[in-house]
């Protein structure tokens, strides 16, 4: 449906209604139409007041941020519209419902009065997209609610509800009813009492304590130096405090544009849209409905099983946890209770909530307890024979139409699907640890997975607050497959003479939460080392005896990371320190594998050697159709692997660095290091895009 803007008259009151589904986002075209209608109102002296409202489920939920990247985008028309609305000589009332966010709230701020339906949520969340409110929001909000709350809302991007907004002076009334009816009766009262326009721009900003508030805000944003918007939001509020309104508007306008053009905002916008897009399933039309999920089963109450079960209990879904022995079951349930109690101790959960959630979790020692579940997820030991047996039993016990998921990280989903005897009902559900906290869920579609099973998985993922991304079947799916080449190079660099601290520092300087050595020490080098050995046994590794030799040696020498007090580092508590014993180990490995050691390895080489093969692997994943879209790969890394959102994910970062540069660098390492095992083979897709000037992050699988 095409967006419309209509101006109707009812008894001397004009109703300006925006109808642009789904969320009435303001595009440049809608802004132009609004301005025309506002001028029509201005020119018609018969009309006594104006109500601005929106149709459908919400008021204006923001500007259409997709337009920000267009070469001809200018934001001035937004600010001008707000000025014209505010300057009108008769009362203007914004009638809000649903959400009034970003440009939507800015429009409301420019109106002379604001009424909201109960439950309306308001905010200026632009900071989450790396920008700031650029249509007067930074100047008007502090004038209405004071600098402190304005800064809080704009720096966090959080929303506040109607009752709090009323208390804060952001709105004038909370009234139930259809927005246009509520707006007109409010406007009628204003007309009857001869009210004159109350313009936000003319309000004096409350100043007591404001310098202290500003200085605290400056200190807060200095800690977020990688993001340009927060600092500029504070500058805008300083302008609101110290300068006349129009001068403040000029500051805001310039700073908005600086933010919009920044690569950080580009990165955040990319991830925002990629995350939404990731929920769409190409080739499956909207008529495919999800299956109902009212009861869930989890097999295995270990690290992952417990966390997975908590997700469902948190969403109010009854969940059965099945273990194969009493001790493991009791331990698993006790760990879940402990987890909830820790949250309760922080005041984030009431003791009643803890009991309600525990009440939804039922422990069992027999698979029979799974017979009436709509979805069963297995999270038993990562061993093909054990998992095959479990899947085969689930295939026999689960009711017809039940969905069976596996949380395997490394095993072939199609083999497990076959073992279940129900490949259409089977898929991978790869949660990340801690499973009750991490947002990412890789949904792995097997060769036989039915479309409605995939649709159900995406649906239930959102119900439990996850960000689902679909992956095809391959070793490691999207995330761990890319991680493999990164960890491979980290181990080679260590054998060549780099220290764990140098590698981690170089990677963390890009903004990644944790470098590879600290990460493996935390996860356990035993787990990682065993996977390498398993793969070697299965013949699925390159025939290179030095492949990830460091992690294997750490496993064999009992240096299992933080939990044993030593791994890549030595630990005092959780603090890592360099360990001469580790250096000696790397020297020995280098000798054993004929690897030359160097005294100087640059940080630039570390970044290129670790990250560029990972990017190349991402391109292979797209080329093979394992991921649907480049954006999906970036979402996996931002949500599951601590990749900094201000870099937009590895593929977006590659686009920023320039694909020709990535290709040349991969080629360089292939030549200088030799390519006997194909480590430096370059994806045809990546080569092609580098030649054509295309972008990996915008690429769709063939
Ligand atoms: P874990 O060893 O902590 O837990 C496994 C549990 O399964 C144990 O409590 C065990 O008693 C139980 N179990 C084994 N066989 C069983 C059977 N036949 N019936 C019922 N229960 C049985 O392991 P984990 O770390 O929770 O890993 C479980 C799965 O999750 C593995 O497939 C692993 O690859 C995957 N995974 C792990 C992580 C992680 O970071 N730990 C991340 C993603 C995926």
TrEMBL record:
SUPFAM superfamilies: 6-phosphogluconate dehydrogenase C-terminal domain-like (SSF48179), ClpP/crotonase (SSF52096), NAD(P)-binding Rossmann-fold domains (SSF51735). Pathway: Lipid metabolism; fatty acid beta-oxidation. Residues 295-471 form the 3-hydroxyacyl-CoA dehydrogenase NAD binding domain. Keywords: Fatty acid metabolism, Isomerase, Lipid degradation, Lipid metabolism, Lyase, Multifunctional enzyme, NAD, Oxidoreductase, Peroxisome. Coiled coil: none annotated. PANTHER family: 3-HYDROXYACYL-COA DEHYDROGENASE-RELATED (PTHR23309:SF51), 3-HYDROXYACYL-COA DEHYROGENASE (PTHR23309). This is 3-hydroxyacyl-CoA dehydrogenase.
């Amino acid at each position: 449906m095409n967006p419309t803007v209509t101006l109707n008259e009812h008894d001397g009151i004009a109703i300006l209604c925006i109808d642009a589904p789904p969320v009435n986002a303001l595009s440049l075209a809608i802004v132009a139409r609004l301005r025309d209608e506002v001028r029509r109102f201005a020119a018609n002296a018969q009309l006594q007041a104006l109500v601005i409202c929106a149709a459908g489920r919400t008021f204006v939920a923001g500007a259409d941020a997709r337009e920000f990247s267009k070469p001809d985008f200018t934001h001035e028309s937004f600010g001008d519209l707000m000025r014209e609305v505010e300057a009108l000589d008769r009362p203007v009332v914004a009638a809000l419902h649903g959400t009034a966010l970003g440009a939507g709230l800015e429009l409301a701020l420019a109106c002379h009065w604001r009424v909201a339906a109960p439950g309306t949520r308001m905010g200026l969340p632009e900071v989450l997209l790396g920008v700031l409110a650029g249509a007067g929001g930074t100047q008007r909000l502090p004038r209405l609610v004071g600098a402190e709350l304005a800064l809080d809302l704009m720096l966090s991007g959080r929303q506040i509800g109607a009752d709090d907004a009323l208390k804060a002076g952001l709105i004038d009334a909370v009234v139930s009813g259809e927005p246009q009816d509520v707006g007109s009766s409010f406007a009628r009262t204003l007309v009857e009492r001869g009210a004159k326009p109350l313009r936000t721009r003319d309000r004096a900003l409350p100043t007591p304590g404001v310098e202290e508030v500003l200085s605290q805000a400056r200190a807060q944003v200095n800690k977020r130096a990688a993001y340009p918007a927060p600092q500029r939001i504070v500058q805008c509020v300083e302008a609101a405090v110290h300068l006349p309104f129009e001068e403040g508007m000029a500051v805001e306008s310039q700073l908005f544009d600086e933010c919009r053009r920044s690569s950080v905002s580009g990165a955040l916008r990319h991830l925002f849209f990629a995350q939404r897009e990731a929920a769409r399933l190409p080739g499956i039309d909207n008529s495919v409905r999800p299956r109902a999920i009212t009861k869930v089963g989890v097999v295995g109450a270990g690290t992952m099983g417990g966390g997975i079960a908590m997700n469902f209990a948190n969403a109010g879904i009854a969940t059965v946890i099945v273990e194969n022995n009493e001790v493991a079951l009791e331990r698993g349930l006790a760990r879940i209770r402990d987890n909830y109690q820790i949250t309760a101790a922080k005041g984030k959960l009431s003791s009643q909530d803890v009991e309600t959630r525990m009440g939804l979790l039922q422990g069992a020692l027999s698979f029979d307890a799974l017979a009436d579940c709509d979805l069963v997820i297995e999270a038993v030991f990562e061993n093909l024979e054990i998992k095959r047996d479990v899947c085969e039993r689930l295939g026999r016990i689960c009711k017809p139409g039940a969905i069976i998921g596996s949380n395997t990280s490394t095993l072939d989903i199609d083999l497990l699907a076959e073992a279940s005897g129900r490949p259409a009902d089977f898929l991978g559900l790869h949660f990340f640890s801690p499973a009750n906290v991490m947002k990412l869920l890789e949904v792995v579609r097997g060769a036989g997975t039915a479309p409605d099973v995939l649709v159900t998985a995406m649906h239930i993922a959102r119900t439990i607050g996850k960000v689902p991304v679909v992956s095809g079947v391959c070793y490691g799916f999207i995330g761990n497959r890319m991680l493999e080449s990164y960890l491979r190079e980290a181990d080679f660099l260590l054998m060549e003479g780099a220290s764990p601290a140098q590698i981690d520092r170089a990677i963390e300087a890009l903004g990644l939460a944790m470098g590879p050595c600290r990460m493996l020490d935390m996860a356990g080098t035993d787990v990682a080392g065993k996977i390498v050995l398993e793969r070697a046994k299965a013949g699925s590794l390159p025939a290179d005896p030095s492949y990830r030799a460091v992690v294997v040696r750490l496993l064999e020498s009992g240096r299992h990371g933080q939990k044993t007090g030593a791994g890549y580092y030595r630990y005092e508590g959780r603090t890592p320190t360099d360990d001469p014993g580790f250096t000696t180990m790397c020297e020995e490995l280098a000798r054993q594998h004929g690897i030359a050691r160097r005294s100087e390895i640059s940080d630039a080489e570390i970044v290129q050697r670790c990250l560029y093969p990972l990017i190349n692997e991402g391109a292979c994943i797209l080329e093979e159709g394992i991921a649907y879209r480049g954006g999906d790969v970036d979402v996996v890394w931002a949500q599951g692997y601590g990749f900094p959102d201000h870099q937009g994910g590895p593929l977006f970062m590659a686009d920023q660095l320039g694909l020709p540069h990535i290709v040349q660098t991969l080629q360089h390492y292939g030549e200088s290091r030799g390519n006997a095992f194909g480590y430096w083979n370059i994806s045809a897709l990546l080569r092609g895009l580098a030649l054509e000037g295309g972008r990996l992050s915008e690429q769709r699988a063939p």
